[in-house]
Amino acid sequence: AVEETELLQKLYHLLEAKGFQTRIEGVELLQDLCKTSPQLISTNIVQIFDYFGLRISDSHKKVKQRALDVLAEITGGLKDALNPVIIGLVEGITKNLNSKDPRVRAA
After folding, report:
1. Residues 6+ apart with CB under 8 A from 107
2. Which InterPro entries match (predicted)?
């Protein structure tokens, strides 16, 4: 339990970092955790997506694009666990449909 708490704290720290490259690291850590520890993610989905949801609307295009790509990949694995956060995700995704950046729109 201590190890899981430390891992989640690291994830939160990376996702809210000032540097865009560090935020991308956080998005990639979430991607890895969804593969290796889906139960940990499912159990803490609301807290995790409070941080991750901000990356979907990130001010930096690279972070936003990576977050959208990762979201598309992890959605299938998380399935029903996403129910509590789906409305916020849809809102974030919808905002990106009007992006001027074609890569963000495509993601």
Report:
1. 64, 65, 68, 69, 72, 96
2. ARM-like, ARM-type_fold
100: enclosing H helix or E strand: none
What are the structure tokens assigned to 77, written together?
């694995």
Q: What separation in angstroms does the CA of 11 have from each of 16, 21, 49, 87, 88?
A: 9, 14, 11, 22, 19
Picking from 69, 58, 59, 64, the residue whose alpha carbon sits closest to that of residue 34 is 69
Q: How far apart are the first and last CA of the chain?
A: 35
pTM: predicted TM-score of the whole model, two decimal places: 0.91
Instruction: Please report, for residues 41, 96, 102, the alpha-carbon distance to residue 4 in angstroms, rounded to integers and kept in the order given.
Output: 10, 32, 37
What is the band of 3 on the pLDDT scale with cuts at 50, 70, 90? Answer: very high
Q: Which two tokens stand for residue 2?
A: 């201590």
